[in-house]
Amino acid sequence: MFRRSHGSGHDKALNQLFDKYKEERKDVIGIAGTEQLCADLEVDPSDVRVLAFAWRLGASKMCHFTRDQWAALRDFGVKSVADMKRALPKIMDEAIADFKSYYEFTYTFGLDVDRGERTLPAETAIALWRLVFSDPRKQSVHLDSWLAFLEEKKVKGISKDTWDLYLVFTETIDKDCTNYDAMEAWPSLLDEYVEHLKGGESQ
């Protein structure tokens, strides 16, 4: 498990780096600051490394970093943008090594908390599933067929339970689902997915 830095005694250079991106009237990095940060790091805001970066800092929502969260970069000796660039691969390595934490974080991170969302809209969930499994070291054999099923079924939302258990499903269930036991406590949406797959194979 990674170490978490605290807000007291921030390194001066790291503090100044935060000030470069923070909002003028609030002590947080918001949308504009995040976009500028991504530009300086030469990564697209939709890049999986940005998701891993947010996880490592413990961000509570998209495009929102507090000064205390920013302090986690001290673990990588960050004092400049160049240091951050060098830290990104290490952060990605940590995310893959602690994938369950990173994966479960992604659901909460994707919620629009300002609008009071408690269930992830299917469109957002599909985009995040593609992103979180985009690293070649951690892929899902079911991903393409699962996402196609969700789109065909026109699912409106994905619950946290379904999101979390999909990881268990994709790590334990064979691509042909022959070892799937419907008597186990799987979400109904996964039951329907397996029935859909087997129904397609029998036609």
Automatic annotation (TrEMBL):
An annotated GO BP: protein neddylation
Domain DCUN1 residue range list: 9-198
Gene3D superfamilies for the chain: Cullin, PONY binding domain, EF-hand
A GO term from the CC aspect: plasma membrane
Top-level taxonomic group: Eukaryota
Gene Ontology terms, MF aspect: cullin family protein binding; ubiquitin conjugating enzyme binding; ubiquitin-like protein binding
UniProt-listed InterPro entries: DCN-prot, DCN1-like_PONY, PONY_dom
PANTHER family linked: DCN1-LIKE PROTEIN 3, RP42 RELATED
Function in brief: Neddylation of cullins play an essential role in the regulation of SCF-type complexes activity.
Official protein name in the record: Defective in cullin neddylation protein
Lineage: Eukaryota, Choanoflagellata, Craspedida, Salpingoecidae, Salpingoeca
